[in-house]
Amino acid sequence: MIIAIMSDSHDNIWHLKTALTLITEAKANAIIHCGDFVAPFMLKHLDKVGLPVYGVLGNNDGSVLTLARAAFQELSHIHLHDVVGKITLDGCRIAFTHHPEVGRAFAATGSFDLVCCGHSHTWHEEKIGACTLLNPGEIMGSNGDPSFALFDTQKGTIKKVIFQHAVRNDTEPALHLDNTPRETYTIRRC
User: Fold this and answer.
1) Residue 32 falls within a domain, yes or no?
2) How many CB atoms lie within 10 A of CB 80?
3) From residue 13, how far is each of 18, 75, 91 by CA, in Å?
4) How many whole angstroms separate alpha carbon 37 and alpha carbon 12?
5) 76 belongs to a structural domain
6) What is residue 93's predicted lDDT score, i.e. its pLDDT?
7) What digits encode the pLDDT tens for the residues 121-164?
8) The pLDDT of residue 167
């Protein structure tokens, strides 16, 4: 099973669309989002992919009531948790949260194979006992190129996926995972 793990999208719809295209190409079976969606329209785009999406709230998420209403009443693939989510996928025990300190504490319990967190907008991968603590970086792209992770539950491997910003100054086409050109988005900064 392939699980895509992302965090800190902060309403960057262009980067989320790119990430979801890459996730679909990678034939992922589920998505974990470690918080800071911000607005409900981000949940709607995640839901359109048709994969189960397990997410937690972050410190910058807008109206928690509106996000929860969207997840529980309007969207069929979003499984929204509060501070910590705990799931078992393909026999792999996974916890996910927004804050790294909370993630580190859960990883130290020895009760999980993988613990995912976000918040710092920085990729971090570390073994704590038999558990892997993973921060997939950020979809937003404020601290460099946007990134997310692909976790293969059968092989126990984690692949870092980096993609270029939607705002580009060059004319080189962005690439699919198989290195073929794909459509890119160009936006104008105000």
Assistant:
1) yes
2) 21
3) 9, 18, 32
4) 9
5) yes
6) 98
7) 999 999 999 999 999 999 999 988 899 999 999 999 999 999 98
8) 57
Helical (H) or strand (E) element with 181: strand 181-182
Non-local CB neighbours of 124 within 8 Å, separated by 6+ positions: 100, 133, 134, 135
189 within domain boundaries: no
Residue 43: phi and psi, rounded to 5, are: -65, -40
C-alpha to C-alpha distance for 155 and 114, rounded to whole angstroms: 13
Quickly list H helices, the chain: 13-25, 40-48, 64-69, 100-108
Its pTM surpasses 0.85: yes
For residue 172, CA distances in Å to 84, 155, 183 come to 40, 34, 11
Could you tell me whether strands 147-152 and 157-162 are parallel, antiparallel, or unpaired per DSSP bridges?
antiparallel
Strands 181-182 and 174-175: antiparallel
Residue owning tokens 């105000």 = 190
For residue 171, pLDDT beyond 70? no
User: CATH number for the domain including 62?
Assistant: 3.60.21.10
- How far apart (Å, rounded) are the C-alpha atoms in residues 123 and 137? 4
Residues shown for the chain: 190
Domains contained in the chain, number: 1
Phi and psi at residue 140, in whole multiples of 5°?
-55, -45
Q: Which domain holds residue 33?
A: 2-182
